Amino acid sequence: MEAIHPVFCTIVPPHVLDRLARADDPALAGPARRTLEADARQRTHRRLTTVLGAPAAAPSPGAADNKVHRTVHDAEHTRNLPGKAVRTEGAEPVKDATVNRAYAGLGATFELLLSAFGRNSVDGAGLPLNATVHFDRDYGNAFWDGEQMVFGDGDGEIFLDFTLPVDVIGHELAHGVTQHTANFSYFGQPGALNESVSDVIGSLVKQYVNDQTAAEADWLIGAGLLAERVQGVALRSMKAPGTAYDDDVLGKDPQPATMDDYVSTGRDNGGVHINSGIPNHAFYLLADALGGKAWERAGQIWYDTLTAGTLSVTPTFAEFAQATVAASRARFRDGAETLAVLKAWEQVGVPVAKKAKP
User: Most buried of the four, 43, 233, 315, 355, by CB within 10 Å?
Assistant: First the structure.
């Protein structure tokens, strides 16, 4: 396996913050500019850590017991990480609802990974789950920095508290799963797959928490995150990419649902948050076709693909699609699941080479 290179991954795309930073209203532009500045600083820190090497990690206390080990910290509106520990594993809820939501979301993600896929935390070896809340002031993002999760409180104008949607928590932790498995690079189609896998797992966490079938789920990423003034329902829609918001300030959701509308751009690391709509939609189509609980078959195929060890760190959409077909055949042979995988990719315009039967 190639060396793991952790990357800095945020839930809100840079193109959204760039637009807000140019707003005439200082109540919108100020927090967006501050958020972009903080993100740039964290991104630089992550690159330096990758180059210089991170300190050796202590053995995971959960490696043997398959139990979650959580710590939630409070940055107290500074950029100092991880901040003050305010709730540790097994401790009673505190007065701060943000802390409690982060703690619960870490647990829900751990439970989905373990119960659905037999995975012991994001690294498969009981990695402790650490999160920091109340990062900076009016910080409009949440991110995985390669080691832990960080949540802002939002500005109250565009974004609310980033711990409100449990799928945001699941999304960011899922970057850790990808980091420790397929390790996709964070540019172009591999980066869009990195983002899409996080949306898939984040959505599955929400569906798991709510005990929903694929038909009952809303397939929205970040529902409940946008403030009342915003004309939109979420950051992204897996069911209908490009429809999550259409707002005078934010603009229109730019995500394509098929390769016909693929966006070629050098921004946002080659459009990782934009073109992720295509594999997102493929997963939704698969889950919808199979029905039932999405993590049981559709999610299992995606997880098998991530952990098979057959993909490079720079796969194209077509290569990933072919790997999902192989994963489905390995588990379900040429049954309804594999036929549904083939059809889902066909519907979004990603070619899948069908291997001839021996």
Answer: 315
Q: How far apart are CA 10 and CA 47, in angstroms?
A: 15
Catalytic residue, from 180, 273, 319, 337: name it: 273
Q: Ramachandran region of residue 168, left (φ > 0), alpha (ψ -120 to 50) or beta?
A: alpha
Q: How many beta carbons lie within 10 A of that of residue 19, not counting itself?
A: 17
pLDDT tens digits, 235-267: 999 999 999 999 999 999 999 999 999 999 998
For the question of residue 273 being annotated catalytic, the response is: yes
H-assigned helices in 151-276: 166-179, 188-209, 268-271
C-alpha closest to that of 330 among 351, 345, 309, 316: 309
Q: How many CB atoms lie within 10 A of CB 76?
A: 13
In what order do the strands lie in the sheet containing 70-74? 9-10, 142-144, 149-151, 129-133, 70-74, 84-88
Q: How far apart are CA 197 and CA 317, in angstroms?
A: 12
Indicate the pairing of strand 9-10 with strand 142-144: antiparallel
CB 242 within 8 A of CB 256: yes
Other beta carbons within 10 angstroms of residue 174's beta carbon come to: 30
Question: Is 176 in contact with 123 (CB distance < 8 Å)?
Answer: yes
The answer to whether residues 62 and 128 touch, using CB atoms and an 8 Å cutoff, is yes
Contact between 242 and 257 under an 8 Å Cβ cutoff? The reply is yes
What is the band of 9 on the pLDDT scale with cuts at 50, 70, 90? confident
Amino acid at 346: E
Q: Among 157, 172, 195, 319, which one carries the catalytic annotation?
A: 172
Distances (CA, A) of 66 to 23, 39, 124, 290, 301: 48, 33, 9, 30, 23
Task: Count other Cβ atoms within 10 Å, centred on residue 88.
Answer: 13
Q: What is the pTM of this model?
A: 0.93
